[in-house]
Design brief:
Layout (H helix, E strand, L loop, with lengths): L17 E6 L8 H14 L5 E8 L13 E5 L3 H14 L4 E5 L9 E5 L4 H4 L6 H17 L2 E4 L2 H11 L6 E3 L24 E6 L8 H11 L5 E6 L6 H8 L5 E5 L3 H10 L2 E4 L8 H8 L4 E4 L4 H5 L4 E3 L4 H13 L1 H15 L4 H16 L1
Parallel strand pairs: 1-2, 1-4, 2-3, 4-5, 5-6, 6-7, 8-9, 8-11, 9-10, 11-12, 12-13
Helix pairs in contact: 1-13, 6-11, 9-12
Length: 372
Amino acid sequence: MGREISIASGARKLSHRMRLLLDAHQLGRSQTGNETYVRELARELRLMPELEIVAAVEAAQAPEGILAPPVRIRRVPRSGLGRLAALSLLSHQVGADITHTIYFLPVAVRGASVVTIHDISFERHPEFFSRSSLFRDRLLVRDAARRATRLVTVSETSRRDLLELWHVAPERVVAIPNGVSSLFRPPADKLAFDPADRPLRVLAVGTLQPRKNLLRLVDAVALVAREMRIVVRIVGPDGFQASQIRDRLGRAAQVEITGYVSQEQLVAEYQRADVFVYPSLYEGFGLPVIEAMASGIPVVTSTGGSLPEVAGDAALLVDPLDVAAIAAAIRRIASDANLRDRLRALGIARSARFTWHDAALAHLALYRDALA
């Protein structure tokens, strides 16, 4: 996936390593996929001798281990506009060759700029966003897409959205797929599922918001529960309209809601599950899908957004609007041991194609391209 990045022969030569100002404000914010992207990318980039990294973190954050030396830390305000103003000033103070931000771009930065736009789902599905979020994103994210030297997105689906909806020049945007941490792996001693012994354990991971389609998942689980014992654990922080979703989910006897969990806890959640269901209506990537695959869990996911691109042939794909289809896919996996084994093997092989090291190398090439 992704467009091959070529480096122009006229790229200016630096007298020092590339100095990268990295917007790392999402660390510690419990922002699931967005935070994972920043954390894992920083972990890999800090090992690259071509880069000298200054990471901008919020004033209230304690630096994580990945931001230890040789990475330098600078503090920026929590508020969005204050943070953007601080990043602009900071890029000049540290002499940044590249300023890499997430979604938003300060008005004036030194050197070249790279902006990561995971997706523009607010354009495809505005009904899933508050009015204030829509106004902000349509104004500021689109402005960043117009002004940045280069754009990063995480799938060809998201790249097509930028080209088709915002008419971004194709040479300015590259799709660099996310990776999966080596922490996610199959357990060594997991017992095979037997419906005579215990309920089927279904896992769903994602922010509690309408786009994740959790209410249809629970309706599907209720259909399956007429035929077998089943429980579903929903892992993730609250998002848009979370209180309404929690109220509805709380009435379902088979549902347990954990809220946000640490990465270590998330690893354990994947390893205890029998099937992973991700029926999202739209995703720019869908990181939990490859995390589940790497953990050796059979996956059911949807045809929404980039999910077919990411899952390939290693999952059962369903129409996210069809509750009966979601239920049927869960039943198939529960009743067919051969299918479970096949999906596990395909998923492990599929997830191995997505590494944060490869993603970091592609970002490094893009930084060079931006300086050309």
